[in-house]
């Protein structure tokens, strides 16, 4: 069975909700899912290991936006992956990125692009959301061709909009399809 590593950081639950949407789609499409975080915040959280990264067949990487960038805890993790990079463990593995910010102009797109950089350096095959997904053209909340995104509101109480959820699901289906195709 192929394994998708859903690696995320979430302080207020928005990114965690997106991670669980992606995990649900991946499981429905025949993948084993490893939900991992960078730090344990609840009893359900499992902290990622370099072995999780090395052994996965694909990666969905999610973080909140912090001043238009991924948070430091995520950057620190990627800074610790030199051995994985040197051995080429992630080369040609499909991947995607997803994020959430508190405002429409909170830096979702720059965060997604920044999150993509370590994946590209590792040689991963980055999946985005193509414009044939109608919600990408009509969304007035989150959504980007670079990956799924969400606008949670200043108080982080806004749930995923219908368009954001559809874009998240679309990205998960695309990633799952490419993982299954890549290893068939």
Structure at a glance:
The protein is of the alpha/beta class and 184 residues long.
* Whole-number mean pLDDT: 96
Overall, the morphology is globular
* Span of the ends, CA to CA: 11 Å
Give me the count of strands.
6
Strand content range: 15-25%
Total helical segments: 7
Task: Give, in order, the helices and strands.
Answer: EHEHEHHEHEHEH
Residue stretches low in confidence (pLDDT < 50, at least 5 long) are none
Helix fraction, binned, reads: 40-55%
Structural class: alpha/beta
Q: How would a textbook summarize the main sheet?
A: 6 strands, parallel
Tell me the Rg in angstroms.
15 Å
Question: Could you outline the blueprint of secondary structure elements for this entry?
Answer:
Elements lengths: L2 E6 L5 H15 L3 E6 L12 H6 L2 E7 L7 H8 L2 H6 L6 E8 L6 H14 L3 E2 L7 H5 L9 E4 L10 H21 L2
Parallel strand pairs: 1-2, 1-3, 3-4, 4-5, 4-6
Give structural notes.
- It is a single chain.
- This protein has 184 residues and is of the alpha/beta class.
- The chain is built from 7 helices and 6 strands.
- The chain has helices at 14-28, 50-55, 72-79, 82-87, 108-121, 134-138, 162-182, and strands spanning 3-8, 32-37, 58-64, 94-101, 125-126, 148-151.
- Strands 1, 2, 3, 4, 5 and 6 form a 6-stranded parallel beta sheet that branches.
- Helix 1 (14-28) packs across helix 7.
- 42% of the residues are buried.
């Amino acid at each position: 069975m192929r394994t998708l590593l859903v690696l995320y950081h979430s302080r207020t639950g928005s990114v965690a909700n997106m991670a669980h949407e992606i995990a649900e789609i991946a499981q429905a499409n025949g993948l084993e899912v490893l939900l991992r975080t960078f730090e344990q915040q609840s009893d359900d959280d499992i902290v990622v290991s370099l072995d999780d990264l090395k052994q996965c067949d694909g990666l969905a990487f999610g973080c909140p936006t912090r001043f238009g960038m991924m948070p430091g805890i995520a950057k620190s993790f990627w800074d610790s992956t030199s051995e994985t990079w040197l051995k080429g463990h992630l080369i040609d593995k499909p991947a995607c990125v997803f994020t959430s910010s508190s405002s429409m102009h909170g830096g979702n797109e720059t965060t997604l692009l920044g999150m993509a950089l370590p994946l590209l350096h590792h040689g991963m095959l980055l999946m985005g959301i193509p414009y044939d997904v109608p919600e990408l053209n009509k969304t007035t909340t989150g959504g980007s061709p670079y990956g799924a995104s969400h606008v949670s509101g200043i108080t982080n109480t806004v749930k995923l909009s219908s368009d954001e959820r559809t874009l998240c699901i679309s990205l998960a289906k695309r990633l799952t399809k490419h993982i299954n195709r890549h290893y068939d």
